Amino acid sequence: MDRARPLPSRRRLLKGAALAAVPYGLLPTARAAARSQTVDYPPAEWQPASSSNCTASNRPTAYSLDRVIIHVTQETYANTLAIFQNPQKKVSAHYVVRSTDGHVAQCVRETDIAWHAGNWDYNTHSIGIEHEGWVDRPTYFTDALYEQSARLTAAICSTYGIPKDRAHIIGHYEVPGTDHTDPGPNWDWVRYIRLVNFA
Question: How far, in whole angstroms, is CA 181 from its chain's centroid?
Answer without folding.
Answer: 21
